[in-house]
Amino acid sequence: MSLQPWERQAQKGRDILQNSVPKQWLLPEDKLPPASQKDVTDVPVQCGLLSEHEVAITNLSATQLVAEMGQGKLSAEEVVIAFLKRSVLGHQLLNFATEFLADEAISRAKELDDYYKKTGKLVGPLHGVPISVKEHVAIKNKTCNTGYVAWVDQVASEDAYLLQLLHKAGAVFHVRTNQPQSLMHLCCENNITGKTLNPFNRTLTPGGSSGGEGAAAGFRCSPLGIGTDIGGSIRAPAAFCGGYGFKPTALRNPMAGCRVACLGQETILGVIGPLGSSSLDDLELFQRAVLDQEPWETDTSLVPLPWKRVTPTRDITIAIMWDDGCVRPHPPVTRALRLAKEKLSAAGITVVDWEPYKHQYGWDILSKLYYPDGASLQRKMLQESGEPALPLSEWAFSYGPKTPLTHPEAWVLQFQRTMYRAEYHGLIKSRGVDFIISPAYPGVAAVYGESHYWHYTAIWNLLDLPAVIFPSGLHVDPKLDALNGEDESYKPRNEIDEREWKKYQSPERYEGAPIGLQIAGRHFKDEETLAAAKIVEDIMKEGAPVSGH
Fold first, then answer.
1. Residues catalogued as catalytic
2. What is the separation of C-alpha 377 from the centre of its chain, rounded to a whole number of angstroms?
3. How far apart are CA 16 and CA 396, in angstroms?
4. Which of 219, 340, 405, 517 is such that its CA lies 20 to 30 A from the CA of 275?
5. Residue 436 labeled ligand binder
6. What is the 3-state secondary structure (H, E, C) of 516-532?
7. pTM more than 0.85
8. 44-83: per-residue pLDDT in tens?
9. Would you say 231 is a known binding-site residue?
């Protein structure tokens, strides 16, 4: 059967990927685990592709790697080779990459090593740290398709500004990562690269739209990665794959050079930020490396706000949002929230319950503001190549109005957005709450094709609040997470709640999935929010496990 024109075009993107794979590091097919094996996180240790030393390197955080290189204990070259080998293996198992940058990365690492040998100094705070890059973040002289077949031939003329800053700080870019068609899925599939899988359970999605980054973090293919987020696209992948993720307040990190179909659409601002495999310290390291360079002096759209050094304090009030008033979280997520409350309360943190404020109303505003043109630009991109819209693309497009909004209609929605933000911020302040811990999603990582409910992450985009994902330390447990008691008799309150609740047929469906939690802070309190996340995570790691968790 002859290929459709769009299929031939998509093949070009697959060829770029295949031609970039360092073949010398491919694990032979007969040594790969069977496709039926769900959890592949132990494969790097077991398969023999990486030496014990290389496994140890890839288990270090970015902060630790910089310290080791600063003491001359590790070279940048051996670090990047270790992460490249783990990335090649990860791609064989998870299909997370869109292009390997092996030659460029090794050459860059050698330059850094030469600099260190000559000066005894590091180039910058990210000296030699391998960083993976979401594909739609432009790299000079590389194609940038943003998950659209129509853009497979489009070549970037310069690096995204954030990459320029990270390069100056010493970073090494070693692999580019997958994203969904249209960038608007909490899933990771397109007609070029295909599906990316979750390293903890390959029947589940790694999240999206930074799903390749989520998989890379979960499999430790990179200590740090770059994602973007307009509805949860950093945070869902981090939560689904057991990693860390940070959504800053808008206009702190530079977005220039991120390719999207709807340039100039500012009804809801997207952000760019880090995902990490190992620690919250690495997310702060990333932010310091960027903002200490004062990027607002070049990109005047940014707020001229330096990154503050904040001392974590336990003298805070944390609210827990058990439910957003629209959709009830699944039992594993509620179990993690209960553990958080018990541990934080026992540690002397003031913990209160958060009563959500008009979240459905907020979603009604937000969903229209995502697509004020009725998703016509996105549909045009698909029509340009003739590629079919994937089911979750159609699902996302349906959020918007059926016809483009008129200017007055858009103005009304933007006014409602601004007033809702003011009301919500006022409530946070009047209730004396510093931070809110909430689910990142109704459940853990979704089964492919079922990641429909964005509201637990998207609400913080609408409100423009900083938010952090961190692992609770828990995974789905068939005994602890079985439906019983109140959950067994629960009657959903609306159609959406019923749809989401029915997905939790049994904990076995989500076997091995990590349980991430989300903490949001006040507007522009990014540093304080990261500091609070560190406190919460440290407390949750303290002492013996609490009974029933």
1. 134, 209, 233
2. 24
3. 28
4. 340
5. no
6. EEEEECCCCCHHHHHHH
7. yes
8. 999 999 999 999 999 999 999 999 999 999 999 999 999 9
9. yes
